[in-house]
Design a protein that fits this description.
Layout lengths: L1 H27 L14 E7 L28 E3 L6 E3 L12 E8 L6 H10 L12 H9 L9 E4 L18 E3 L17 H17 L6 H16 L2 H4 L9 H7 L2 H15 L3 E5 L20 H21 L6 E7 L20 E7 L6 E3 L1 E2 L6 E3 L2 E2 H11 L7 E4 L2 E4 L12
Parallel strand pairs: 1-7, 1-8, 4-10, 4-13, 5-6, 5-7
Antiparallel strand pairs: 2-3, 4-9, 8-9, 11-12, 14-15
């Protein structure tokens, strides 16, 4: 009797473990019902609007409001676009005719609204700030996974101020960025000091190689990254790459169409795409236009239209310029911001913060654009259809540029999903 009971108990345990293992294995596998999506884009130009672009005043306009009467709604009138049923703010008149090459994703959402730095981190890494892991940025992941598109070009360039949220995190220096803060000249670190001739530079590089060869090989990843950074910087200081920053080579009328400093940054981004840079972030850091940038509390909203017009001019020109160079299908343009703005007006006539629903924009990149994706309610405050989480939005970008969005990266032995398990917007593929 005891022997039979022992045998049955053993069989039940074995069956339990077998069935549990099957269930556990199924849970770890990617969803087989959804085929892997992969686009054909080769480059990303990511435009960052620091401060929080108000969706209701730009890409998701609603009925007109009135700050004086405390009537919630849009600050501006709206206009029709090339896509029937899709309307934009009246100050996006240059983008309106090309919206068939654009998708305003109107239902991006997250839960960070009280602090700009935390929201900026969320919209660059796709995750909350962690005390134990420094997560890599979107640009660094794409640089890590795809590398540069051409020899002698860096994979990732930041046109704006350096910040840890844009950085490589646990991926290390190889996935970091090269940065410059204006378009008047290239990165200072790549320019030879006066008096350093080509011959003298060659002798210096030969001396460096001799020193490196005399040292024993190292297993320290930090030292290897440092050596790799030196080698990369020597490549990038060549005339071939530094020529990319000479905007004077462009026709004057084209430079005029792009507009001021922000527009010139977008023009430089196109030139960097041509040179083989995989990912370029362009920051819109022109707070002097309204004193507040896109963070339009109180009277900061009075000149918000100048920011919108500047964005409109530069991005519309970038789209048509890339198209004329046959680069639009190969280049995904992304416009992001840390959160949106509510339809209500604050005591000074401006707007607060809103993360429950806001707009981010995709253009080009070979996607099936539809003008707008997702739907919000009559005040652009709540999502009515097709919510898109930040991981979902990031997964869409990864898929468009051929990065496996189901992949796991590793911080030491710790597995970290590339997009925090986001799923791409399948309708765009």
């Amino acid at each position: 009797m005891k022997t039979e009971l022992h045998r049955l108990t053993f069989m039940n345990r074995r069956q339990f473990l077998a069935s549990s293992g099957t269930a556990l294995g199924a849970g770890l596998l990617p969803a087989s019902a959804a085929p892997m999506l992969k686009g054909k884009a080769e480059h990303v130009i990511s435009i960052w609007l620091g401060g929080g672009m108000g969706q209701i005043d730009t890409f998701d306009p609603k009925r007109r409001g009135d700050p004086a009467k405390k009537l919630a709604g849009s600050y501006y009138d709206s206009i029709e676009t090339a896509v029937p049923g899709v309307r934009l703010c009246e100050h996006l008149k240059n983008l309106a005719p090309v919206m068939d090459r654009v998708t305003a994703v109107r239902t991006v959402n997250h839960d960070v609204i009280d602090e700009h730095a935390a929201a900026t981190n969320r919209m660059h890494t796709g995750r909350s700030i962690s005390g134990t892991v420094t997560y890599p940025s979107l640009g660094s992941i794409i640089a890590h996974e795809r590398g540069a598109a051409a020899d002698g070009a860096p994979p990732y360039v930041l046109i704006g101020y350096p910040n840890v949220t844009r950085g490589p995190g646990f991926l290390g220096a190889k996935a970091g960025y090269l940065y410059l803060t204006d378009t008047g000249h290239g990165p200072a670190g790549l320019s030879r000091p006066e008096g350093i001739t080509a011959g003298r530079q060659t002798r210096r590089e030969a001396f460096l190689r001799d020193l490196q060869q005399e040292q024993p090989a190292t297993a320290d990843a930090r030292l290897r990254d440092y050596d790799a950074a030196i080698a990369q910087s020597l490549k990038l200081s060549s005339p071939e790459f530094t020529r990319s920053f000479n905007l004077g080579e462009e026709k004057g009328d084209l430079r005029t169409r792009y507009g001021g400093e922000f527009g010139q940054r977008c023009l430089l981004a196109r030139r960097l795409v041509e040179r083989g840079v995989r990912f370029i972030e362009v920051s819109h850091n022109l707070n002097f236009l309204n004193g507040a940038g896109w963070d339009v509390h109180n009277i900061g909203i009075l000149k918000q239209h100048e920011l919108i017009r500047e964005l409109d001019t530069a991005v519309a020109t970038l789209i048509t310029d890339l198209e004329s160079h046959r680069l639009l299908d190969k280049t995904l343009i992304v416009i992001t911001t840390e959160f949106g703005r509510p339809p209500e007006f604050d005591s000074g006539g401006g707007r607060g913060h809103q993360g429950s629903a806001f707009s981010c924009v995709l253009a080009g990149g070979g996607l099936k654009h539809c003008g707008a994706y997702g739907e919000t309610n009559e005040q652009a405050k709540k999502i009515v259809a097709n919510p898109v989480s930040v991981p979902d939005f990031f997964a869409t970008i990864h898929a468009a540029v051929g990065v496996d969005y189901t992949k796991y990266l590793y911080d030491g032995d710790r597995p970290v999903p590339v997009t925090d398990n986001g799923k791409p917007i399948a309708a765009l593929f």
